[in-house]
Amino acid sequence: MSTPASPTAVADTVENAKATPEKEQPYGALGLKPDEYARITEILGRRPTSGELAMYSVMWSEHCSYKSSKIYLRQFGQKVTPEMTKNLMVGMGENAGVVDIGEGWAVTFKVESHNHPSYIEPFQGAATGVGGIVRDIISMGARPVAVMDQLRFGKIDDPDTARVVHGVVSGISFYGNCLGLPNIGGETYFDPVYQGNPLVNALSVGVLRHEDLHLANASGAGNKVVLFGARTGGDGIGGASILASDSFDSTGPTKRPAVQVGDPFAEKVLIECCLELYRDGLVQGIQDLGAAGISCATSELASNGDGGMHVELSHVLLRDPSLTPEEILMSESQERMMAVVEPEKLDAFLAVTAKWDVETSVLGEVTDTGRLVIDWHGEEIVNVDPRTVAVDGPVYERPVAYPTWIDALNADTAAVLPRPESSEDVLAQFLSLVASPNLASKNWITDQYDYYVLGNTALSFPDDGGMIRVDEESGLGFAIATDANGRYCQLDPSQGAKLALAEAYRNVAVSGAVPAAVTDCLNFGSPENPEVMWQFSQAVEGLSDACLELGIPVTGGNVSFYNQTGDTPIFPTPVVGVLGVIDDVARRVPSGWQDEGHNIYLLGTTQEEFDGSAWAATVHGHLGGRPPAVDLEAEKTLAGLLHAASQQSLLASAHDLSDGGLAQAVAESVMRFGVGARVWLGEVMQRDGVDLTTALFSESTGRVIVSVPREDDVRFQALCDVRGYPVLRIGVTDGTALEIQDVFTIEAEDLRARSAATLPEHFGATAV
Q1: Which of 101, 287, 416, 656 has a 20 to 30 Å separation from 258 between CA atoms?
Q2: Given this model, what pLDDT does residue 677 score?
Q3: What does the pLDDT read at residue 244?
Q4: How many CB atoms lie within 10 A of CB 74?
Q5: Are 198 and 151 within 8 A, CB to CB?
Q6: For residue 165, which of 126, 113, 112, 114 has the smallest C-alpha distance?
């Protein structure tokens, strides 16, 4: 152990706070409102010390306390059935949800935002977003096995977009690759609405045996409180309260010191150290230090325990000895964990951290006082009920107002937009979609990630979902997919949230897995805007209702407010992640066909649904109307059908239809392995009563294209008939070109070249 903090900083003690009630404090600069400050003084019966003020400011921030969203988020816990929770080992309220996947294995997963730091300092903002979500997974007792990212950037040709894209992608790849974790999926969209406020959501997944589960609580008076990992520095101070809980003004990137700095090699060592501590039974409770740092770890551990906690803050090992006690409490320096250790196991604990060369300091112990007491060189600077800091913060019922502009937006339907009149026009529109920023190949990004490291990746980019093998002997694994469509949500946030869930659910189902659980990251504008709160309330209601109907629980997630520049909020963007279980990854189903001579089937029916579509956006620059309908009962039937077909090894490929409709799905299936297809749409048009443009570009839900070997045709069709799901044979895999019969033909290599060129044209050669 190394030298702790020096006593150079003069602390504001509890005694001093009692003696100087008139002292003015900078609560506003720390993100607290006057009434919140008044409530703190009421709770304490005096003014807070500077240390207490620091703790309350970060823990009562929007980012940590969910004070504007709590009243809505309760629906996720209320709209459940016993069937939904039968495999849920840990739900909302812990660092991450945990799902029993069978054979004694469990999977823990969660998605969180790191939006504002990634605009100010894109590289470190994105890198530490990955590091933070991985530590949430470690803290559950799991080994992290994969990461994913969900990215939203501004207009692709805006000069600042390149700055953000290069930094964010480099930060994600640097941190994840150094950790040796495969990046197995995600999404990237470009839209001017995210210009001054990109979204960088990071997801991590871990696996554990049931008996290795750990929770964040400090129980047992006399147990030691131990801080281990990287030293505490001045980076990230006030990140949760100042950066994540406020919006940007028009002056651009500022607040750089509030962005954390990450060291993935330190985190890699920390992962292995934690896993050995778990293996040897040396940890009674554990919490990662992310947002709000020591303030969060001490107050949450104490709140979740059965007593209190006493800590000597001067024992914290520092990178910067000039830090004040308040700064130490607020610092969000990365790669740190806090453990509760039984006294008789402390020497063994310290031996393990020493073996891994992880710096460690014993800060204090668990008490039976019910109070969180923090000293600075023997002087008391914090004495609070920890629940008032971590649990019983403000709960707001913000004003909600139906948007004044939404009726006009909904009335402006894409159905009246002009459609192509010739085969040449159809081809031109098809090619513009394939090469558009949101549908073009994301290889420029994904080639910078390692997605096969660890040797257990069964599916990854550009398949619809990622898949990881958990057990080598049985082949047990999980699949995961994330989705969101901000354009749909702008038109109807409730329906948009349902559509995000339905698409992620479908993307898991096409892989051959059975959808089992949900995590979400809800990205919205300022909660102080009543119209934003209407959007948020609608999205949560829609998502919770849809989860109940599909029968899969929300295990946890994140709310990110204040995503706006000036007074202009982003589109509501609820990112939904769905986890699925597959009993043997050998039966996984890829998204593109690999062999000629297979029949191509379209599952589901097509309606005229262009509102919010990629066709409307790319061809016409249009957003208006109402998003596609979603039939969740049909989605369940479709998922069951796909699972049965994969179990019987009837499917050579399966790919969901979403952005860009059937045309984009067929193009991606051709580009996947370079095997062409002949497709005919006459029967689809006749059965569903739609024109060619609708058949190609509509974004109706509940649709999937599959390729089936000819010898399995009869069994596959019988499976569809038994389940009563609409199915039509629309083509055959053949040659090296995509032919839409009687419309156009284009070589697969030409398609691939057009799709692959878009991102490099704007961002240069890939750095690999």
Answers
A1: 287
A2: 98
A3: 46
A4: 13
A5: yes
A6: 126
State the Cα–Cα distance between residues 354 and 351, nearest whole angstrom.
Answer: 5
Nearest one of 408, 389, 398 to 532, comparing CA atoms = 398
d(CA 464, CA 484) in angstroms, rounded, equals 13
Per the CB < 8 A criterion, the answer to whether 584 and 688 are in contact is: no
Contact indicator for 697, 613 with CB cutoff of 8 Å: yes
C-alpha to C-alpha distance for 144 and 132, rounded to whole angstroms: 12
Over its C-alpha atoms, the chain yields an Rg (Å, rounded) of 26
pLDDT of residue 767: 52
Question: Across the chain, how many H-helices and E-strands are there?
Answer: 27, 28
- Is 370 a known ligand-binding residue? no
Of 462, 551, 626, 652, nearest in space to 79 by CA: 551
Task: Assess contact for 555 and 99: CB atoms under 8 A.
Answer: yes
**pLDDT tens digits along 467-520:** 999 999 999 999 999 999 999 999 999 999 999 999 999 999 999 999 999 999
Q: Is 224 annotated as a binding residue?
A: no
Q: How far apart are CA 512 and CA 723, in angstroms?
A: 17
- Among residues 215, 218, 241, 216, which one has the least CA distance to residue 372? 218
Q: Shortest CA distance to 136 belongs to which of 119, 113, 158?
A: 113
676 neighbors 737 (Cβ within 8 angstroms): yes
Q: SS3 letters for 706-725?
A: EEECHHHHHHHHHHHHHHCC
Reported residue count of the chain is 768
Known binding residue 247? Answer is no
Q: Is 114 annotated as a binding residue?
A: yes
Is 410 labelled a binding residue?
no
Mean per-residue pLDDT, 611-628: 98
Left (φ > 0), alpha (ψ -120 to 50) or beta: where does 2 sit? beta
Q: Is 188 helix (H, G, I), strand (E, B) or coil?
A: strand
DSSP character string of 227-247: EEESPB-STTTTIIIIITTS-
Geometric angle at alpha carbon 628, from 467 and 667, rounded to 5°: 50
Does the pTM surpass 0.85? The reply is: yes
Give the Cα separation of 469 and 479 in Å (integer): 9
Whether 70 has a binding-site annotation, put simply, is: no
For residue 114, indicate whether it is catalytic. Answer: yes
The answer to whether the annotation marks 116 as part of a ligand binding site is: yes
- Residue of 114, 214, 310, 622 with catalytic role: 114
How does pLDDT run across 339-373, given as a tens digit for each residue? Answer: 999 999 999 999 999 999 999 999 999 999 999 99
**Residues 510 and 581: beta-carbon distance below 8 Å:** no
d(CA 637, CA 703): 11
- Residue 26, token pair as written in the block: 């900078």
| Residue 492 and residue 539 in contact, taking contact as beta carbons nearer than 8 Å | no
Q: Verify whether residue 63 is a known catalytic residue.
A: yes
- In the chain, the amino acid numbered 541 is E
Token digits of residue 352: 């393990």
112 is in an annotated binding site: yes
